Fold:
Amino acid sequence: MNKKIKVLIELLSDGAFHSGSDLGKKFGLTRAAIWKLVKQLNKYGIEIEARTNKGYRIPGGLELLDKKIIAQYINKTFVDGLVILDETTSTNTYLAELIKAKAKNSNICFAESQSAGKGRLGRKWVSPYAKNIYLSLLWDFIKEPIELSGLSLAIAVAVAEALSSYGIKKDIALKWPNDVLWQKHKLAGILVEVSGEAHNICHAIIGVGLNVDMPQKTSQTIEQLWCSVAQIINAIPQKNKLAGLLLDNLLTAIITFQNSGLKPFLKKWRELDITYGKKVTIVTPQQQKISGIGVGINDKGYFLLKDGSGKIRPFAVGEVSLKIC
Structure:
């Protein structure tokens, strides 16, 4: 994103009308040039209203991520490692590239938009500009990779607790292994990518996407039921407060998981498990479908499915997907 586009977004983020002549004076451009600049916002999915004798505005405005506000809600020792990007391919990819370059100058990454946001099993995460929260953390665990199999479940619990802290306490549910739902609609997703290193150190990149104020227009490619915080509270959310609460709960959960594993999170997960007692189907990488009844998770975070013969079969977090019948 070039500097003029960034400044224009900041000016229009207040939701008020700004005349072409006023914008022209600030940028040193003609009104025709301003019109061309405004049109470039369309490629970021930003809705612009143009009105004769009034100028341009972003209806409802935009709350851009602000490091100072986010820092009010988290342990200050982590602030130095926090970066906010205007755009990136994906926040997980950004941190993965830092590992490759051996330049871990940042371990917390927010982005206003992603051109190639990643979901689980290669799915795309729709990432319109400044409307949602796209967050990744890089953490080195002193554990074997297999010990991190339940990490996505601990993170899901942390997301649910962040939403509760914000005031969304009812109708939140968790779907194994990485979905946070509200009234059966997807509200947040989690992508954990692990790479090993010598001496039992694992790099874990923990990505979270939270729908804050997802526009209907940009969500048309989403194939599953979804919702956003704005729909739940029927108001414009405080995005920076949400981002701060989310990050704080994630950091607390990660430290707890490092020290004690999945055990401290099991009770809360089981309380919010939407598949318990429900008919479900597991789909394997070979597209084999195994149906049965969900009977929770074990202490390692494996999904437990009771098949037609009454046998309980465990499935590890990996390439399998889970569907509720």
About this structure: Residues 8 and 38 are 8 Å apart (CA to CA). The mean pLDDT is 90.
